[in-house]
From TrEMBL:
Gene3D superfamilies recorded: lambda repressor-like DNA-binding domains
GO terms of molecular function: DNA binding; DNA-binding transcription factor activity
Official protein name in the record: Helix-turn-helix
PROSITE patterns, sorted: HTH_CROC1
Pfam families: HTH_3 (PF01381)
Entry keywords, A to Z: DNA-binding
Organism of origin: Microbispora rosea
Length: 125
């Protein structure tokens, strides 16, 4: 698939998981950061075939709280995010980088054009 003649790379696993969950923000605005972080943490946990209980115990939090973090319903502290990332062996900078990529990709999909492309250009006559 291409948008404006440019190829688009789609992570099928992530797309299927997102389709099952439904749109995080139905009005087309940027997703909340906590929602994006939660999706990434869940994807990483599932990729490792680990349970909520396993990761929650490693972090020292309840399974219910971790589930709410993964679903974007709770806003974890930076310390809590760091602890979950450590339990998953995911460097915190990878969480941040992946979040930026997902938000950028959602903007491209929502607008139908690459991020940063101006909507209108003014040219001097």
């Amino acid at each position: 698939m291409a948008v404006s003649g440019r190829p688009v790379v789609i992570d099928i696993r992530t797309r299927r998981a997102a389709e099952e969950r439904g749109p995080a923000i139905p009005d087309g605005s940027d997703p909340l950061l906590r929602t994006v972080y939660g999706e990434i943490l869940r994807d990483e946990r599932l990729d490792q075939d680990r349970t909520l209980d396993d990761v929650a115990r490693a972090v020292g939090m309840s399974k219910q709280y971790l589930s709410e973090v993964e679903r974007g319903r709770k806003e974890p502290s930076s310390e809590m995010l760091h602890s979950v990332c450590d339990a998953l062996g995911l460097p915190i900078e990878h969480l941040l980088t992946r979040a930026v990529r997902r938000i950028t990709a959602s903007r491209r999909i929502a607008t139908g054009r690459p991020s940063g492309t101006p909507q209108a250009q003014l040219l001097a006559a």
